[in-house]
Amino acid sequence: MIDQYVVAPAESAPRLPVRPSAGRFLILAVVFVCAACGLVYELELVALASYLIGDSVTQASVVLSLMVFAMGLGSLLAKRLRCRAAVGFGLVEAALALLGGCSAMVLYATFAWMGESRYALIGFSLSIGILIGAEIPLLMTLIQRVSRQDAGGTVADLFAADYVGALVGGLAFPFLLLPWLGQLTGALLTGAVNVVAGGALVLWVFGSDLTGRERGLLLLVNVLVLAVLGAAAVMVDDFERAARRAVYGDGVRVAVQTDVQEVVLTGGRGGRGEPLSLYLDGRLRVSERDEFRYHEALVHPAMSGRHERVLILGGGDGLAAREVLRYADVRSVTLVELDPGVARLARTDPALAELNGHAYEDPRLRVEYGDAFAWLRGHGSGSAPERGPYDVVISDLPNPAITPSTKLYSEEFYGLASRVLADGGRLTVHAGPPAVRPRTYWTVDATLRAAGFGTSPYSATGRAAGFGAGPDRAHDGRNADEGEAAGEGTRGADWGFVLAAVGRPPRVELSPDAPRLRSLAAPVLAAGVLGAERTRLRDLPPSTLVHPRYAG
C-alpha cells in the first residue's frame, strides 16, 4: 500500500536494454507484484496472530496499525537511498522477501518453543512495514528516470498498479495460497516471487546504472535469499512435525487442516497410554481426564423437564450429544456443527468415537453443518416438521472472549434461540469461567436477560489441575484463553454456565430420570449456584452485534 511518496528530480536517462515505454511497463508490473506480495505478508501476520494469540480484532488492529506507521517511516528513510535508487530498491526487495517469506516459520517457532509470539509479531510488523514503505519512493525515482511523464500522471499510474496488486494479493491469500500451500509454504513462495521480481528489474533494466561491485553484491544477495527460502520450503514438513511435537507432545495421532481450522488428536488409542485430547487451532477443547465434568454440568441441568426434542449448537465432538442420548425418552437430537471435519473425526476415530459413546451411530441424532447464528436465523420459524420447537437448546460454543464467537453470545443470537424453544423450554449456555473472567461471565447473563430470558447462573468445579477440558484451554496452561498461566494450579478450575428460560428463571436441578453421573449431584449443583453467585457483577450492559462487550 502507498503511504507516502517522494517525487525525485529528473536525472539523465539511463542506458536501457528496452525502450522507455517498455521500461515503464516493467516498473509498473513490478509495482503490481510487490504490492501483491506486501499484502500477502500483512494478511499472513494477521492470520498467524489470530491463530497463535487469539482475539482476531485486536491482533489485526495491532498488526495493521504498526505496519501503516512503519510504512510512513520507510518512506522517509527511503529519501537517503534516492541517489542510488536502483541498488537501494534491489536490497530493499531482497530484505523484504527474506523477512516476509520467513515470518510465518519464525512466528510459529516462537509459539511452539518459547510459548510466546507477540514480540516477534511486533518486530515483523515494524520491519516489514518499513521495507514496504521504502518501495514507492524508490520506484518513483526509477520510473521518472525512464519516462518524462508529468509527476501527476506518474503518481496515478503507480497508485493504480499498487492498488490492483494489493487486490490480487488479498484475494490470492485466502483462495489460493492458504488452501493449496498452507501458511508456511505460501509465505515462502511469496518471498521467492518478491525477490525474483525486484532483482530482475534492477539487474536487467537498470544494470547499466550499477557498478560491477554493486551488480555482484545484488546477485549474491538475491541468490542467498532464494537459497534460504528454498531450503526452508524443503524443510517445511519436518519443521511442522517438530513444532507440532513441541506444542502437543509426542502423542500426536491425527493432525488435519480442515476448511475451518487445524484439528489435532493426541493420546487415546496408540497414544502410549495417554488420555485423549482434542485441539482446535492449538487450543485444547477436550481432555479425557475431565471432560465428563464439563459435559455433565452443561447438559443435565437443562434436561430437568420435558426433553423429547433437543438442539445442540456446536459440540461436534459428540460429547454433549452423548450425555443427551443417555435419556431414553429423548426422541430426536439436532446437532449444528460449523466444521464437518470435527464431526467426521468424532464419528470415525476409534478413540474419540469410544469417548463419545458412538453418539453419531444413534439414529436419534441428526447433524447439520453451518454457522449456528445463520442456522438459527434460517430455521427459527420451525416450519419443517423435524425442526423446532425444541424442549432444550444446549449452546456448547467457544468462549465469548474469542472474537469470532462474540456474535454467538449476543442479544440477537439469544433472541433467535428463543424462537426455536418450545413453551417452558430451557437454554443452557457455556459462558466461560466466572472466577477468572467474571465480567465476561456476567455479561453473558446480562445479555440473556436483555433477550427476554430469566437466568440461573451456576458453575462446576473439579477441573484437572493445569490441564482442563472445557473449550479454549491450551496445553499446560500456555496461551490459555481463560487467563490462566502455567503454575496457577486450580485457580481457574471452574466452568461457568447459565441456565435460562423465557420469562421466569428455571431451577438448577437434575431430572428425576437422570442417568447415573460421575461428577454431578444435587449438592454439587447447589454449591455451583453459590459459587457463581459469589462472583456476581451487577448492572452490566448486554452485548449486541453492533456493540460487542467481550474484549480480551
From TrEMBL:
Its main location: membrane. HAMAP family: Spermidine_synth. The keyword DNA-binding does not apply. It is an enzyme of class 2 (transferase). Residues 472-481 have a biased composition (Basic and acidic residues). The keyword Transmembrane helix applies. It catalyses: S-adenosyl 3-(methylsulfanyl)propylamine + putrescine = S-methyl-5'-thioadenosine + spermidine + H(+). SUPFAM superfamilies: MFS general substrate transporter, S-adenosyl-L-methionine-dependent methyltransferases. Homodimer or homotetramer. Its EC number is 2.5.1.16. Belongs to the spermidine/spermine synthase family. This is Polyamine aminopropyltransferase. It is found in: Cell membrane. Residues 233-479 form the PABS domain. The gene is speE2. The chain crosses the membrane at residues 25-53, 59-78, 90-113, 119-143, 155-178, 184-205, 217-236. Residues 467-489 are annotated as: Disordered. Keywords: Cell membrane, Membrane, Polyamine biosynthesis, Spermidine biosynthesis, Transferase, Transmembrane, Transmembrane helix. PROSITE patterns: PABS_1, PABS_2. The active site is at D396. NCBIfam families: MFS_SpdSyn (NF037959), PRK03612.1 (NF002956). Catalyzes the irreversible transfer of a propylamine group from the amino donor S-adenosylmethioninamine (decarboxy-AdoMet) to putrescine (1,4-diaminobutane) to yield spermidine. Spermidine binds at H295, D317.
